[in-house]
Amino acid sequence: MYGCETWSLALREERRLRVFENGVLRRIFGPKRDEVTGKWKKLLSDELYSSPNIVRMIKSRRMGWAGHVARMGKRKIVYRVWWGNVRERDHWGHLGIDGRINIKMDLQEVGYGSMDWIELAQDWDKWRALVKCGEFLDRLKTG
Predict the structure, then answer these.
(1) Which comes out higher in pLDDT, residue 96 or 6?
(2) Helices and strands in the chain: count of H runs, count of E runs
């Protein structure tokens, strides 16, 4: 998860991360014995989670980082790179996803798409409450 605040995930990558995480959790928890029939069965995805999944955690951390960068001064290099028009092509020649676009999509996904997130991010307490609240994480749809 190191550096995940700067990742721009496409839907395909989000799905691959969820599949990987489910496989790891199934291996950790192992099969479950059905109390009625006594047969062993593989755990379903909804039985695996007791905490937010990996994609939700990445989105939450990405929101925190975006707020941090939005509060930086214009003289900081990170701020200039974030707001600059820096979009590189990957090794297939496709343009990468802009981090600011990801933040807007994440906010739209939870129903806050109409707000000016840059202005909201200037108030650290309000931004932290939005990003860290359970409602934000619960509203993130990942599947």
Answers:
(1) 6
(2) 8, 2
Phi, psi dihedral angles at 36 (to 5 degrees):
-80, -55
Please name which of 26, 112, 34 lies closest in space to residue 66, comparing C-alpha atoms.
112
What SS3 state is found at 48? Answer: helix
16 band by pLDDT with thresholds 50, 70 and 90:
very high
18-127-86-5 Cα dihedral, nearest 10 degrees: -30
Question: Per-residue pLDDT averaged across 22-44, rounded?
Answer: 83
- Decide if 62 contacts 103 (C-beta within 8 A): yes
Separation between Cα atoms, residue 67 and residue 15, nearest integer Å:
26
Q: Enter the DSSP assignment of 89.
A: B
Answer yes or no: are the C-beta atoms of 71 and 124 closer than 8 Å. Answer: yes
What does the pLDDT read at residue 140? 59
* Summary mean pLDDT of the chain: 77
